[in-house]
């Protein structure tokens, strides 16, 4: 009798845990938010960022994603931007300047952040020591110099690269085409 009761409780617990909190945040974003654009490095397909939009405020979006999967680090909200740092990726939330009350949600692989983002983008949201610890002890200084001397500048999130808008064109949700990537001159 006790074994049967234990099995019922165990089975119920497994189903409960499967239904609550075991989904990854990036999968949740892909399934629940509107796909907007993609940026990918042509030489490394793991080096990418996917851009989505949700019709929620930045605060509501952050709370929802944190509830889906607890990040390793939650950045401070600064100037309408916030970053959630997960195991192998960053989810960057930005108030959509073209759609008040909406939020742009960018899911960027670690490699994309390491090689394309300007460290200044994260100023105030994350400590430089977190980024240096994740990408190497001199990443912040090295990347800042690379961005300063690179003619295109560095990617700054939300589809903006260097001094202007960076877009790979229009893609349908679920498309297998992931764009030209940073520095491709599109």
Content of β-strand:
15-25%
State the distance separating the first and last CA atoms: 68 Å
pLDDT averaged residue by residue: 76
The major beta sheet can be summarized as:
6 strands, antiparallel
Name the helicity range.
25-40%
Number of strands: 8
Overall form = globular
Which consecutive residue ranges, at least 5 long each, have pLDDT under 50?
9-19, 161-186
Name the helix and strand elements from N-terminus to C-terminus, one letter apiece. HHEEHEEEEHHHEE
Give an account of the 3D structure.
It is a single chain. With 186 residues, the protein is an alpha+beta fold. It is 34% helix and 24% strand. It has six helices and eight strands, in the order H-H-E-E-H-E-E-E-E-H-H-H-E-E. The chain has helices at residues 2-19, 25-32, 58-68, 110-116, 128-135, 139-149, and strands spanning 34-41, 44-54, 73-74, 81-85, 89-95, 103-109, 160-161, 164-165. A six-stranded antiparallel β-sheet has the order 1-2-6-5-4-3, sandwiched between helices. A two-stranded antiparallel sheet has the order 7-8. The longest helix is centred in the first third of the chain and has 18 residues, at 2-19. It is globular, with a radius of gyration of 19 Å.
Secondary-structure topology with pairs:
Layout: H1 2-19, H2 25-32, E1 34-41, E2 44-54, H3 58-68, E3 73-74, E4 81-85, E5 89-95, E6 103-109, H4 110-116, H5 128-135, H6 139-149, E7 160-161, E8 164-165
Antiparallel strand pairs: 1-2, 2-6, 3-4, 4-5, 5-6, 7-8
A few lines on this structure:
By secondary structure, this protein is α+β, with helices and mostly antiparallel strands.
